[in-house]
Design goal:
Blueprint lengths: L1 H17 L2 H10 L2 H7 L5 H8 L4 H10 L2 H10 L2 H8 L4 H9 L3 H7 L5 H11 L6 H4 L5 E3 L5 H11 L8 E5 L5 E6 H6 L8 H4 L7 E2 L4 H11 L3 E5 L5 E6 H19 L14 H27 L2 H6 L7 H24 L8 H29 L2 H4 L4 H32 L9 H24 L1
Helix pairs in contact: 3-5, 4-6, 8-10, 15-16, 17-23, 19-22, 19-23, 20-22, 22-23
Length: 458
């Protein structure tokens, strides 16, 4: 992508300086809107908007939608207020609400009064829904017909509605009070064209999968994936249809949630801006909080080791195997935390399954610990006697191997139960991150290791 951008930028700027309207219009229409937006990435916000003005409004809105959100906000700030208000009205309802969430409230207050009343009401209604809910990501533009329509009437009605619709995957059947009665897919409608007088009520599917306007966006994504839908209707408690969520919006939700979980499991707060575009202070602030907390927690390892100072002085070789034992607990705990957090996110594990998860991970921890413990035992026996000092290789081997086994079991159980516990108290399971689990298991692992060493060697 970088190579074409480099080649096109000088040409684009030359077209702009020459005012070459014909070539700029061709540039806006010759490629897919996403490719056109890619080629415009190197332009300033002012230059990008000047290029977009050579495209017809539907194409202009499409290309604009593929620009980065930062660039969209810059264009919105720079443009004439009345012109921007008119342009926002041509964006899909969910996209324009997302965009207005990113700009200063003062600018929103300037733009809203300049918009047509219907669009202004729609924006205010969508902005009122809590963030990360179905209502916040839905679009209010969808194909709707009456159950009394014939196939012929439906096709004529869709011809009238099509210009204002984002997509026509499904045609939703509503009554006079906007209750969702059923749906007809575009494929069903085309198949029924040979019988144009057939009533829609005879074609429609009545058991429609839907989501409530207050449902979490993760639940919406799970439903769309489970039922393999291209779009899903959004209804209120009385089953009035409010909008739809399309598969492209679901992809955005999945990417957003996966990114957020990845940040949390890495031990940092989620970032909204791209990595290279984020201010240094912002990145530092997002990372330093968890690191500081984990660092303070890791200081407990100092306290734990200090309490076994005499043991280490007596048999110095014990210190050699501390990293081995600690890393075992951290690694096994991180594995378990990742598995269970992901299972919770996919709906494969819920709070009622904690006992099954505990039993499963207990057996898994024992099996994994036995394998690692055997390797540790062999390693101790292969260690030269002069390094072992006065310690018996067999006793030390048993101590280290059993410590590794128990620490592995403890790490696995800790890593599997923490996400479920966090979910139970209303905290995002993603915070049961690898660094968090590793820090907890580090401290307790030292206690387990030296407690077993005391039994075998002292």
């Amino acid at each position: 992508m970088n190579l074409p951008n480099t080649l096109y930028l000088p040409e684009l700027r030359e077209m702009l300086s020459d005012g070459n309207a014909e070539e700029l219009r061709e540039f806006c229409t010759a490629l897919h809107p996403a490719s056109t937006a890619d080629f415009m990435e190197g332009l300033s916000a002012e230059e990008a908007w000047r290029v977009l003005q050579f495209a017809e409004m539907p194409v202009r809105a499409e290309i604009f939608g593929y620009l980065s959100q930062e660039r969209q906000v810059e264009i919105l700030k720079l443009g004439d207020r009345a012109e921007m208000a008119q342009f926002i009205g041509h964006l899909p309802p969910d996209d324009r609400v997302d965009l207005l969430h990113e700009v200063e409230p003062g600018l929103v207050d300037q733009l809203l009064p300049l918009m047509p009343a219907a669009e202004r009401r729609d924006i205010l209604r969508l902005r009122a829904f809590p963030e990360n809910t179905a209502g916040a990501v839905m679009t209010t533009e969808f194909a709707r017909v009456s159950e009394n329509f014939t196939v012929r009437q439906t096709l004529e009605e869709l011809g009238r509605q099509a210009e204002d619709l984002e997509t026509i995957y499904y045609i939703y059947v509503l009554d006079d009070e906007e209750h969702l009665l059923g749906l007809v897919s575009a494929r069903q409608l085309v198949s029924a064209m040979g019988k144009p007088d057939t009533r829609i009520r005879d074609l429609m599917e009545q058991n429609v999968v839907s989501v409530n306007v207050g449902d979490d966006q993760e639940e919406v994504a799970r439903k769309v994936a489970h039922f393999d839908l291209l779009a899903i209707p959004v209804v209120d408690q009385a089953r009035h249809m409010l909008g739809i969520i399309t598969h492209d919006d679901v992809i955005d939700v999945v990417v957003e949630e996966a990114t957020e979980d990845a940040y949390k499991m890495g031990g940092m707060m989620p970032m909204e801006e791209s990595y290279l575009d984020s201010p240094f202070v912002t990145v530092w602030r997002k990372r330093v909080g968890w690191l500081s907390l984990l660092f303070v927690a890791e200081l407990l390892t100092f306290t734990a080791l200090a309490s076994y100072e005499e043991s280490i002085k007596t048999i110095a070789v014990l210190a050699y195997f501390i990293p081995l034992c600690i890393s075992t607990g951290g690694n096994s705990g991180s594995q378990a935390a990742t598995l269970i957090t992901r299972a919770i996110a996919l709906g494969q594990v819920n709070l009622r399954d904690w006992a099954r998860v505990f039993a499963h991970e207990l057996l898994m921890g024992l099996a994994l610990g036995a394998a690692l413990g055997t390797i540790a035992f062999v390693q101790v026996l292969l260690t030269p006697q002069d390094m072992l000092d006065m310690a018996s290789p067999w006793r030390l081997g048993l101590a280290v191997s059993q410590a590794v086994t128990l620490i592995c079991v403890w790490g696995t159980l800790t890593g599997s139960m923490l996400p479920i516990f966090f979910k139970r108290i209303g905290v995002d399971p993603g915070f049961a991150s690898s660094p968090f689990v590793a820090t907890l298991v580090d401290v307790t692992g030292i206690l387990i290791y030296f407690s077993i060493a005391q039994i075998y060697l002292f």
